[in-house]
Amino acid sequence: MSIQNVLRMGHPILQQLARPVRDASAPEIQQLIHDLRDTMRAHHGAGLAAPQIGQSVQVVIYGTGAPNPRYPEAPTIAETILMNPSLEPIGTETESGWEGCLSVPGLRGEVRRWKRLRIQALDSRGQELERVLEGFEARVVQHECDHLNGILFPQKLTSNQRFGYIEELITSGQIPEVPG
Ligand code: NI
């Protein structure tokens, strides 16, 4: 088990374009997947991207197969690894929702995302994976893939007013009560 330090907003690696994975079976990529899994679980993240643990490569993980205490109202999502992902919106419908990020601790902001999309990627064994996603899972994937393009959610707020510390947002009734 290898829980890694999570870089916070302001670290230059979080602003870089991540490089594609060339060989999914390479030991360093498989180790990276283990580290992402351990670190995401330790922090109860909904997802985690490799740049967040200091590796500028196109690998993300999301879902734990169990309810997430940081997002108690969200559906349970099976653990999924995506390498070299590409996203394509289906239709033009969008929805706004509150997001957090382990690289932006203590804060939440409202972000507009595509409601439905098709993803193409390689899975943890380097096999082609294609899925159609919607709702919360589509939101998580868009958030994680943004990390691979050097983008954090505060750069995509619906409004500068829809952003703040979790406790203040709960106290003022802007978001429901959620832990951490
Ligand atoms: Ni994030």
Task: Please render the helix and strand layout as text.
Layout: H1 27-42, E1 47-49, E2 59-62, E3 80-89, E4 94-99, E5 107-114, E6 116-122, E7 128-134, H2 135-148, E8 163-165, H3 166-171
Antiparallel strand pairs: 1-2, 2-3, 3-6, 4-5, 5-8, 6-7
The structure holds nickel (II) ion.
Provide a compact summary of the structure:
With 180 residues, this protein is of the alpha+beta class.
* Secondary structure tally: strands: 8
- Helical percent range? 10-25%
Shape: globular
Share in β-strands: 25-35%
Poorly predicted ranges: none
End-to-end CA span: 23 Å
Sequence of secondary-structure elements: HEEEEEEEHEH
| Main sheet summary | 5 strands, antiparallel
Note the total helix count. Answer: 3
What is the radius of gyration computed over CA atoms, rounded to a whole number of angstroms? 16 Å
Bound molecules: nickel (II) ion
The assigned structural class equals alpha+beta
Write up what this structure looks like.
- This protein has a five-stranded antiparallel beta sheet.
- The longest helix has 16 residues, at 27-42.
- The protein has three helices and eight strands, in the order H-E-E-E-E-E-E-E-H-E-H.
- The protein has 180 residues and is of the alpha+beta class.
- The chain has helices at residues 27-42, 135-148, 166-171, and strands at 47-49, 59-62, 80-89, 94-99, 107-114, 116-122, 128-134, 163-165.
- It binds nickel (II) ion.
- The site of nickel (II) ion has 4 residues, from helix 2.
